[in-house]
Write a structure and sequence with these properties.
- By secondary structure, the protein is mostly helical.
- The protein has helices at 3-39, 49-53, 61-69, 73-76, 142-146, 173-222, 225-242, and strands at residues 57-58, 80-84, 90-94, 127-128, 133-134, 149-151, 156-158.
- The protein has a 3-stranded antiparallel beta sheet, covered by helices on one side. The chain has a two-stranded antiparallel sheet with strand order 4-5. Strands 6-7 form a two-stranded antiparallel sheet.
- 13% of the residues are buried.
Length: 243
């Protein structure tokens, strides 16, 4: 055997060994990933921690469609609001009830009246603390169905490692798959509404302002000449006072 042939054979063996090593490493990495996935187990313990302290819950178009289809959207409307996030984005949220003043009952209020930071540890408005019961369990939002598991478009993560249900035994493969699928769906649905919401908000706000201006014009046109003169006098006095 010539020296060149021997070198070629050695090179082929080296390449083959590299391929085998690479395949083994890939297999080991996949095994580790699968093992890591298998480590996540969850069973809701009904501790009500997430319902009492979670704060604003993001809502998706899919949630709205479900509520409309099941005829329960009226139950949610008093608690829906648009949250303008610090990063400039928008979320449609199910807002918690603001803490009630002494002697008063908690009532739905605008986030403009109550800073969002003050609501981060407040309970869900549709959770009955005394009965430890979700009042809309069958129609609960996607975000509640997948909590505490989230998906960021690439990886899964546990957003509340202190949740008592994390690590609880008894989760089946089917339940784990369903939870992952729901987390993925939540991510894509949330992305969809975050793209659509600013546009929808502008359209709704624009229509509202146009309707308001039209109503004002109709009111003005229906005034008698005497009423118009009185209104002019009031406006002039207001201007003089401001000056």
């Amino acid at each position: 055997m010539t020296e060149d042939k021997q070198k070629d054979q050695d090179t082929e063996k080296d390449e083959e060994q590299k391929i085998n090593n690479s395949e083994n490493e890939t297999t080991e990495e996949e095994a580790k990933r699968e093992e890591s996935k298998a480590k996540f187990t969850f069973k809701c313990t009904r501790c009500d921690k997430c319902c009492l302290e979670r704060g604003p819950i993001p809502i998706t178009i899919s949630d709205l469609e479900l509520w409309a289809r099941n005829g329960v959207i009226a139950n949610f409307l008093p608690y829906l609001d648009i949250y303008n996030k610090p990063d400039g984005g928008m979320d449609l949220i199910l807002k918690p009830l603001a803490p009630a003043k002494e002697g008063e009952e908690a009532q739905p209020g605008s986030l403009k009246e109550v800073p969002i930071k003050e609501l981060l540890q407040e309970k869900c408005p549709l959770y009955n603390k005394e009965q430890k019961k979700c009042l809309v369990y069958e129609n609960r939002p996607l975000s509640c169905r997948t909590y505490p598991l989230e998906f960021d478009g690439k990886n899964f993560s546990v957003v509340d490692v202190d949740c008592p249900g994390v690590g609880e035994e008894g989760m089946t493969k089917e339940e784990l798959k369903e939870m992952r699928d729901t987390a993925k769906r939540m991510y894509y649905e949330l992305t969809r509404i975050r793209i659509a919401l600013p546009v929808l908000n502008q359209i709704i706000t624009g229509n509202f302002m146009r309707t308001l201006m039209q109503q004002q014009m109709e009111v003005m046109s229906s005034l008698s000449e005497e009423d118009k003169e009185k209104l002019d006098e009031i406006l002039k006095k207001g201007q003089e006072t401001n000056e």
